[in-house]
Amino acid sequence: MKKIIMIIVALAVLFGTATSAYAHSGRTDKNGGHNCSAKSKQKGLCTGYHYHNKKK
């Protein structure tokens, strides 16, 4: 019984402290922005220069 409780607590801690996921992992300039690729424009994901994870 004690082992089951410890597993539940460990899982709660694991899922409770998840890291945040960022929209873009790389190839951004010092301001956190970049130009869209032709492939992204074709998919309608963006239209030109835009920012990722801009601090407000």
Explain what you see.
The model has no long low-confidence stretch (mean pLDDT 78). The protein is mainly alpha-helical. The longest helix has 15 residues, at 2-16. It has helices spanning 2-16, 38-43, and strands at residues 33-34, 50-51. The chain has a domain at 27-56. Strands 1-2 form a two-stranded antiparallel sheet. The N and C termini lie far apart (48 Å).
What's the topology here?
Elements: H1 2-16, E1 33-34, H2 38-43, E2 50-51
Antiparallel strand pairs: 1-2
Key structural traits:
38% helix
Q: What structural class should be given to the helix and strand makeup? A: mainly alpha
- Based on Cα principal axes, name the global outline: elongated
How far apart the termini lie comes to 48 Å
pLDDT averaged over residues: 78
Count of runs of 4 or more consecutive helical residues: 2
Radius of gyration: 20 Å
Number of strands: 2
Strand content: 5-15%
- With strands numbered from the N-terminus, the spatial order across the biggest sheet is 1-2
Helix-strand sequence: HEHE
Largest sheet: 2 strands, antiparallel
Please bin the fraction of helical residues: 25-40%
Low-confidence stretches: none
